[in-house]
Structures are given as structure tokens and as C-alpha cells.
Specification:
With about 70 residues, the protein is mostly helical. It contains two helices and no strands. Keywords: Coiled coil.
Length: about 70
């Protein structure tokens, strides 16, 4: 019965808007957090790919220089 009363009170407070804004804020915060994590992970992956390409290009460049000089 206590749980039912708590549910009723929570529902009425949500209807009156006293706790609805807090819920929306928490929900929006959670969504923003997820989006930021996705952007950060995407940026990290992009940097890793660029770094990998940079290393490969430099390795190829150095290999060509070594071959051309006959070392």
C-alpha cells in the first residue's frame, strides 16, 4: 500500500510539474552524455586512423629513401 501511495504522489507531482522538469533534465543529461561519448569515441577512432596512415606513409617514404640510397 505504501508503494501505491508513493506512486500516486509521484504521479501527481509529475502532473503538477514539480518533479517533471528534474526528470527531463536527467533524461536530457543522459542523452547528452551518450552523444558526447559517441563523439569522443568517433574523434579518437579518427585520430587513430590518421595516425596509422601517417605512420604508414612515413614508413613507405623511409623505405623508398633507403632503397634509393642502396643502404
Amino acid at each position: 500500500m505504501t508503494d501505491l501511495e508513493t506512486l500516486k504522489t509521484t504521479f501527481l507531482q509529475a502532473i503538477n510539474g514539480t518533479q517533471l522538469s528534474a526528470y527531463i533534465t536527467k533524461t536530457e543529461f543522459a542523452d547528452l552524455k551518450i552523444k558526447m561519448e559517441e563523439k569522443i569515441n568517433s574523434a579518437i577512432a579518427e585520430l587513430e586512423n590518421k595516425n596509422k596512415a601517417f605512420i604508414e606513409n612515413n614508413s613507405n617514404f623511409l623505405a623508398k629513401k633507403i632503397i634509393m640510397r642502396g643502404i
